[in-house]
Fold these 3 entries.
Entry 1:
Amino acid sequence: MSLLVAIKTGLNVAKDWTIKHSPELLLGTSIASGIGATVCGCIATKKMEAINEKHREILDIIHKSGEDLDGEIADGKTLFKENPAYKRNITKEYGRYWLDIAKAWAPCVGLTLASGTAALASFKIINGRLVVAETAFAGVTKAFEQYRDNVIEDQGEEKDLYYASNGALKKKQELIEKGKYKEKEKKYDTGVQTINLTKVDDIFHYFFNEDTVAFGRYSNAPYYNMTVLCSSQEMFDNRLKTDGIVFLDDVYQYLGLDMKTLLAERAQGRTYGWVLDCYTEDGMPNDQHVLFGIYEYNDTQHKLFRAGQINDVMLHFNCRLLTPETCKLFAKG
């Protein structure tokens, strides 16, 4: 009984493993079948010469003597081509000829179909799993957004920021109040001018580091920050293509950047962002892409950040000042 249980358990484990890794197995099968089909195709091509020669000789005999393969002699009083026996012999021989061709190419065709079927099945399984994962992620994201809305409603934005930053903002504020917090002076060489990174007073440039990012978008893992920024840039660039406009406010809010300077600009009636199919003040067409300046600068800091050797990077937003007419136009749309 224990042996049967062990066998049943082993089969279940093998079944679960096969289902879990079915996309990889099917893809491997597709590749192997494709290679096999190529080899069989080469072999069938070599066989074609022998098949053609064999049936050419038999057809020559039928044409010359009218003798079929069973020894029957066509009626000499009528032409071979009009004789039923001759027609039957020709038909049978051509049938054998195409049958030999089918036999020669059957393995190649079968393996080709198997390769395509396996690849398609693998794609369907992967696509189905991606749909399930996307649905689950959307559900989790929606639930988290609802949770944050509830926290803000019940306890206020300050408490929400405290939870989002794991208390880092509160600890920093406590150190500042006690006079124990010392701001580190960080310099960034752009190749043209030196910008003081401890001051966030230029909306087109923003230093992305643990002291200036409030909503938990920052991590001590360099490649994590690189992934967050690149995926965010791609997301807003796609939004520009679909909506026709992207506001810098949305980028700041999504990345968790300090909105103080940007809100001050808003209060003065100045709005910044990207607009699709627009022209700059000097009449030149806009590049029509949302860029954070991650790959556009080749100074030492950006190179080190892209290589995953440092955690911080200076962002350069290629946005522009939007006219009130432009904002109203897209607001109506």
Entry 2:
Amino acid sequence: MSTMNPGPEDQLTRTLTARAEAFTDHGGEHLELSSVLARAGEIRRGRRMRASIVMAAAVLAVAVPVGITALDGGPDHRAPIATSPTPSPTPSADSHALTRIPLGPPPNHSYVDEGVLHNTDGSTRRLPPTTYLRLSGITPYLGGYLIGNGDTATVTLLDGNNKVVKSGPGSANFVTTPDGVETAYVMNGTLYSNPGSGMASGDGRVGPVAFGGRPVGYLQQGLLYETGRTTAAGTPQLAVTGGGSVGHDLDSLFMLNATDQINDRVAGVIVGGHGRVISVKTHRILWTSAEWQPIAFDLTGKYISAIDNAPHGPTKVAILDAATGRVIASADLASKGLHFGGGSFDDSGNLLVVAGQNDGDSAAMLRLSPAGRLDRATRVVRGLMHSDNETPLVIPAGPQ
């Protein structure tokens, strides 16, 4: 099971990494993603993360000539098509968009609300300010928590008393097994999976990965991860712990989003933004969708969450049948004056979605049930335009 799934920040990082590498492969000057993001960070100080995502994309767009930006030609290396920027429509703002959605019971999953971790048993825990002000991900780990900071691009392990055990460069790509027993992450250029049999040491150290390397998720044969390098076709180079292999089953995916360990399936995106789910067990493509991009499986592997393949970013969220891609339930966020900010399944099979108002000043966590009911699972957090807390609502990875 993945973390709060690939939200805008994670998708941006992976997309920029691929674009920067492609730019270099086509004769451009080598671009370090960290430099691109750092420059974007300088520009966006005091702004919300949503604005910085757009700014980071703009920085790379300036660095990459227009004739090289359309690099979706695939492995046949056809000449790229020059494209002109298309202006994004200005979304309508509604200051009451979230409060109009009925408030239901609290989430059946832990969540973080402006630095306070709310557990399903009703207990709370305040995180250290140095960790939650740019919180990009969190998951329980070894009696404490792994925490990702989206501003400094670091991962920190806190013990049960909020004391720092270790910290280093990394992103909040935390993935767990469906039972929550094993967790994988990257810190200081090293991939960890703990606890795990056959690992090199007691801390779950798997081995080094290149910049951009990350865990994708667990399969029956082991942990599937990206090494941080790309293939000749421009797709992520993959590996499996314990000497396993996925062969060429996943060669068509240029973005890998999640795994289903129970049924040995992998979800991702192919060229054109089309979603795809592949069975590693049967070596077959189960389904491909031009409309939906799969994001994360639920704990049972029955459902998978998805966002629509819209030209200017996701406008809808959905629960799909993981085996067929059939839509079980969906919600049109854009029609309600909202935008998508990440999400994950709770322990009951409902989809929790962090939604922000298009006025840019409020956010809340919504809940979409397989029956199609949409309600609000948390309070509305306001005043974000004037807050230093860019990620007020975060859903921890793994079963809670």
Entry 3:
Amino acid sequence: MIPKRKDPTKPVSEEETYDALPTWENSWIKNATLYGEMQTTSPLCYQLATMIGIMGSTCPTELKMRYAGDMHVSFFAMCVGRSGEDQKSSAIGIGRELLYEACPELIGSMPASAEGCIESLSKKPKQLIIYKEMGKLLSSANGGYLESLKTLYTDLWDCEPQQRVLANDKIITVDDPRLVMLSACSIPYLEKYTQPHDWEGGFLGRWAVMYGRRERCVPDPIGDTRHFHQLKTMLHNYAKANQVGEYLGLTQHAKQMWNDWFYELDQFEMPDLISGTRSRSPAICRKVAMIYAWERGICCNQWQLDEETLQAAINFTNLHLYSIVALNSNIAEHEDAKLRRKILNFFSDIGDVVSYGKILRELKFNRKIVDEMLDTLVHSNNLEQLRIENQLAYKRVDTFLEF
């Protein structure tokens, strides 16, 4: 249910994302994801997360399922990668263009405060908000003036009613907020402006995180827009539909699949820094399952969540888990961890060999500090010390992965 990866420190690959795409015919999310692939070389996992969010924006307010209470559709996705290299904003922009052409009224603006967000939702309870650089929010919310906005977003993920009292004692209420957020974030921002408590089931624990790395190279990405009109028209029809039936639970096969995945997730190894995201992953999975069910049209009358729909949601959530674990290797919570990551970044793959002199020259750290960290990495079975032509070198081995 959660396939073991050969190297859990690597970003999500194109192949893994292809395997996670919906399997049913005429899937808008799948077709839109593949359309996005033709427009840009950004990682396919960014396209998938974006299109799930775009479809989620069209879901009716009344759509819900029972899971630890009433669960409604709200969906937060964050595309994480290298600044400029992985084209995170480009992927999100393709989805935004489709929604703008189909239903521009669903697109909201970045609020300047928690109060402004509530006021915006009172006028437009269902909307999509895009952060092209999530680092700006994280930097301002990390004990800054937007801390209250981060807290509000946490509540809005749970679709909790909101209210604001104005200066004239007038009360603004939002009974049924439905918010979808898509964001892009560079790794240095994520490392600098997040704290362990953000990952331990708090604010970031509610985001579906996609950590990708650009694999394709196209020298002249002019794009192929042949399917744009069809995708836009279908999206418009989804947004105008509003018939939703009563949720009757999981089918028998889906229930067995859910139980198997849930218990496997409970045993899934995660580093302490990000282990809190495990508890939110089932809820993320169920929200994605509702979006897929809406896309398939199976929830217009009384409906059950079937095996094929649930499998697609589980596949996506597994990509989220892979991303979180891989990011842990690239996000350091203290200075020693940052130096450790910098040294390991010299080795692209297991088996790579780098000379001791190169590490010293490029790090520009005190030799004693570097020696201590290299010794630590040898003892932790990340590196192996070698002698090549009488020169000291290190080889990436990661033998701990074999146990």
